[in-house]
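Hey all, sorry for the wall of text incoming. These are the two entities for the joint prediction.
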Amino acid sequence: MTLLKSWVESANTSETDFPLNNLPYGVFSTDGTARCGVAIGDQILDLTALEAEGALTLEGGALLQSGVWNDVMSAGPIVWAALRDQLQQGLTAGAAQEAAFAAHLVAQADVTMHMPFTVAEYTDFYAGKNHAINVGSMFRDPANALPPNWLSIPIGYNGRASSVVVSGTDVVRPNGQLKGPNDELPRFAACARFDLELEMGAIVGQPSDGMVSVQQADDMIFGYVLLNDWSARDIQAWEYQPLGPFQAKATATSISPWIVTKAALEPFRTSTPERERPQLAYLTEPGPMLYDIDLEVGLAPDGQNESIIARTNYNEMYYSAAQQLCHHTTSGCSMRTGDLLGSGTISGAEKENRGSMLELSWGGKEPMTLATGETRSFLEDGDTLTLRGAAKGDGYRVGFGECTGTVLPAPAVPDWAK
Amino acid sequence: MTLLKSWVESANTSETDFPLNNLPYGVFSTDGTARCGVAIGDQILDLTALEAEGALTLEGGALLQSGVWNDVMSAGPIVWAALRDQLQQGLTAGAAQEAAFAAHLVAQADVTMHMPFTVAEYTDFYAGKNHAINVGSMFRDPANALPPNWLSIPIGYNGRASSVVVSGTDVVRPNGQLKGPNDELPRFAACARFDLELEMGAIVGQPSDGMVSVQQADDMIFGYVLLNDWSARDIQAWEYQPLGPFQAKATATSISPWIVTKAALEPFRTSTPERERPQLAYLTEPGPMLYDIDLEVGLAPDGQNESIIARTNYNEMYYSAAQQLCHHTTSGCSMRTGDLLGSGTISGAEKENRGSMLELSWGGKEPMTLATGETRSFLEDGDTLTLRGAAKGDGYRVGFGECTGTVLPAPAVPDWAK
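and here's what came out:
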């Protein structure tokens, strides 16, 4: 596929994240009222307005008036395809709808972005093999870094949906219980090893009741976002045995404001790697279910230039989101519109491909040097982190925009907690 | 306190779970429409009807018309107290409201009960010391059964809200990945070690943003339910390292249909046990925050008589729900109306006080003999499990009704999963 031409001129370049090939969905406001929109070049088309005036009609009635995408997600794949068709036709160069649509373009520079959907529940996986090996080596035993179940199970745990925020939301460093290996007792203090996790998030559009196959799971997915699962490594190290991470992962999870649909990503499907161990039949993929998406992480100290601290690709995952979602339903667990699945941290083979500072600085033993000359083992207050991602086509890209957040100092510990 | 007399005669006995002292909230239907009600003796007072005709008025408008209790929960403690006052006055023997209220009584025997509230998110804790020691001895190392952090942290993990069901809902045995200690590879098959967990659930009524104290946490709690966290022990054993239980806990969590309010439980407050290790200041309780509630578990094989397989008390917990909720907010995690916190399995000191079959049969090594003569290590298809609980006053009890569920056979493994 090559670049599709739009009458929105800014969409017709190889640099924009949002050509006509993409058409990602988000929620924006100019006056405080959240509206559904689609990104095209450096503009947003106001779909709430278009639907209200009848220039856009969807089976099942008004689906774009609630200020989140959940109504469209619930409506299912036929509606998803119909909406994309109408938008792609209306935004194509020479389209008859140009005048009607152009009246509802808003510059991206002039809007505030909001959460694109209401998160039902949030599950985070651990499906990056390099990440699992790196973390296993540091937290447990380098000789047996990969847990015994890892090659058989897409390991996941339930996260906290109330902590999911949209890109641009500041992230307050957490307090928590900390205990060094030589401390007799823990203390309650600010996290000193605050970290990012570079992930992709898959959004469940269609619900399920009972076990689904990998193909059915893929069909249920509405689209993908960039996802940063902020992590307090020192809180995690002390709390996570035996029942997994809890408060270490409950401060914030940031997502990109744009949901890139499965349809836009179709040309970029790729396969998960060959299995080292026979895989249980239920996890077999009927076709390629991962995506070739270049990813990078930028870190800008307070008011200074950004350094790119990691580059990797979503194709590093060992399990696809479809496999994860299928596994999620094995026990009979119902899935719902708005469930969000984090892929797990995406780390490549080399040091510069690692998707967390824990790995990049090897637990703080090998601090990074930034372009500013400063060093970092973990995040400092004032640091702004930005994830970026794009699938690269022939003369075009399908991008996610930015997933960014600035670290603010921890709250003062209240007197009653001292 | 002694028994308060009502004009509803069935409420004036020492045997009923629902005297005027209690007034628990639930959701029922007679014709398919879910309505909010309060239990009194063997009757339910239809509060949705009373509010609709103006015989009951609450600050903030119609709060009892949505078929769940979330609107009342959101309205806060002043409304909670005002509602209880109106109900207690109107149901007291000799009340002027008798005729108006009596027109809206429905026999409990004639209704279907529904989920009393919409669960926002579900967190399960691990705060019973005997349970933690028993499980640690079986799954890990008997010499170091209690994890190093256990005496400092109310250990918890996020569960799956979509799996929470009301008492009376059948529970389908899950399939999942199973691997015996001597198997080379896992297989996908029906769980063979399906279990209960006897717990109490605390319901968050008021939201929070940022860390709260134990007292603030207690103030946020709307009430309590009985809770059975159905658990697949064989799935759990293979999946839970390193990130905690996932599909083993995602089949179902049953709750009692009646929410017993904090106000009804006030006379039964009791303290958590003395700490063996200095406790961090933030977890200090300003007063007694546990409750003295007798609990029991009955098991009835398909169509046969029930045996009581365990008796214990909520006062066996090491951490109160208020402490757990406080800890839940330490990282800045927002809590929401409708969050449900499971206490963790409640096991007493003796074998007959253990709140799970894993403990009662010591991992299957010591099967129980039921009154029917059958033996059990774990649950069999057709078994009906029933949790019961009541705080005991002077000539009255504040009970929760029953939390029950019948185990149905696992779904056939689909061909594509074989």
